[in-house]
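Structural prep section.
Before we set up the soaks we want a predicted structure of the protein with adenosine-5'-diphosphate in place, mainly to decide which crystallisation condition to try first. Input record follows.
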Amino acid sequence: MATLELKNIRKSYGATQVIHGIDLDIPSGDFCVFVGPSGCGKSTLLRMIAGLEDITSGAVCIEGEVVNHISAAKRGLAMVFQSYALYPHMSVKANLSFGLENIGMPRAEIEERVMQAARMLQLDQYLTRKPGQLSGGQRQRVAIGRAVVREPKVFLFDEPLSNLDAELRVAMRGEIGDLHRRLGNTMIYVTHDQVEAMTMADKIAVLRDGKLEQYGPPLDLYNAPANRFVAGFIGSPKMNFLPGEFRSGQVHLKAGSAIDATAFAGAGDVELGVRANHLEITDVSDGALVCEVHSAEQLGGETYIYGALSDDTPITLHRPGQVPVRRGEKIGVRVDASVVHLFSMETGASLAT
Ligand code: ADP
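Run finished without errors. Recording the tokens verbatim:
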């Protein structure tokens, strides 16, 4: 177990800066997920922590010690890659043992660690097989096992599940979660998938264009996003953003309705953020928002309705049960004002007080 701190970390490739000063404290034993769209700098940041990439400026500290100039092998970290990076000509057992043999660990200790990891990851029946004779999930478990046998202070995962099909991904998420509970190590996990982040993390770090947008427990980010970007990135379906003007405690939406927004401070052009499940269907009457239905997904237990308001703002409603709507139909939409968010149109920052 180990604490990990990033202090004003920057990274440039030539003249191009791609990480712009990131500060992050990851407490010992936490499962921290770095999430963000492709190209936001997640892998670069992880590789700087691992020692696989030079740090342009700032410090990476493990247990309070700056490790910038300590080689990858000596940082006490183990990384699991998306590509598995297994040796195809070696058995599972040899793949698990290889790293330990390389550092000259006594044979008996290697045997004990490998067998323990194999049991934990349910690989004991496959020890003599080659990676080519395993399923994708089993291969990823071998890759994880290879990290486990090293007994690292911190585990680093770089999109480890993106090569697996949807069902297996869900199963492996559970397995990695179990592993974390059993071992109690600090773990950092990189993904572009916000569902993976929401389901696995103790804390999520949302990155965008090499900057940290918000850091906190999943539901804190969902319930109180610091800005429009986090609001739009965390949660599925994506939050609706309705443009309007904020004055005297009310948002006057371009699409026509006025919504009470007393828990916010500021004035001027804003976007009202409202999640799809906080919109109700009402009669089309004076003062109501009117949505023209473009399509609907009837899933039996729930219905998704996609359409546009009178100012052409796209809108998604998520209702429980079966809601009969037709394409082209106009429905009234009521916003639950107690759960809305408000963002400055200019900066995207939340106007919550
Ligand atoms: P992510 O993992 O979030 O998809 P990366 O960390 O891979 O993002 O990349 C962050 C940014 O750094 C991207 O704009 C990418 O093009 C750039 N980048 C990554 N590696 C290099 C490199 N070796 N040389 C130049 N630019 C790079």
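Observations: The two ends are 37 Å apart (CA to CA).
Flagged for discussion at group meeting.
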